[in-house]
Amino acid sequence: MVNRNRARSAVLAATAAVLVLSLGSCSDDQNEDSARIPVAEPGKVAAFALGELSTTYDLDHTAVNESGHITSDKAGNIYLASDSNSPLMPILRMTPEGKVSQFTKIKESHSDSGFTAAPDGSLVTGGGDGLWRVSSKGTVTSLESQRRFKLPNPIGIRPDGTVVVIDGESVWSLKDGQAAELLTFPANQGRVRGAVAPDGTIYLSNSRLDNLRVLAPGSPPRTLTIQGDLPGAGKPLSEMAIMQMTPATDGGVYAKVQWDPQKGGGGFVYIVHIAPSGTLTAMARASEQGKSCAAGEQYAALDNPCVMPWFLARSGDQVLALGDIYDPERKPSPALAIHAPRG
Fold this sequence. Notes:
By secondary structure, the chain is mainly beta.
């Protein structure tokens, strides 16, 4: 009888332990899965707390402005990293729904200039050590090039596998180890930014919206004539500067534009779609100093109380605006999801 009671007690204890472990596991999963990237209604922006998408990784710190790097792949996954002041820099992957995991860790000098996603699921990274390819399994290999770049920033990959690289004021193509200069902007006129559309067209700018250069495959560079309207801007398009770009699914680019900081800045900040024809469509408008934007709420896209985040990334039928100035003394401003249907 004693042995039977002991056996019964052991079974009950084991069952209780399993139950506790199961409840603990469920609790962890629920914490990790409780927050999701919202789906913005047409004509709305959906505000959400980026940092609440993960209890494991500090997304607010990873997406900090200037020191952060963000790109997305054709499946809508977003890759994020930030200069970490450590030998290895984590690169995080966030699904369109908002599930976050670590993609890999890489030497910071391999990727301190930026990275772009390749069609095969790998990343091409660039930094003081040159250009590198990071496989979907985390294997890192050097990207062969007969040219020694200074601080290469890969911004996209054309359908034929050509990697497009910004290095200072110059833009290069790299394929099979051969580098060719595509375009050089005048020095000291602003940081060169760019994006590569799915059809291989490269969009580049180092300053104003009216200086957007386009390089279609097999064609020489040309300046795209922009036509459209920015509600409430109070400034001509020629005085608006491009701050960020990301490729649009069906051609052209999404861009973050604002009044040229070299002329004082201020005013509204816009997310726009620029079509291959040059037609500009305002998708969202926010300010540099929001008032009462609350995570979990949806607001009119062109009339809301939100601060415009730093980075842009396309993810499925949405454009996400992410990142803020990192300040441990205050709560980060919400990220924004913006409706951007295909077709």
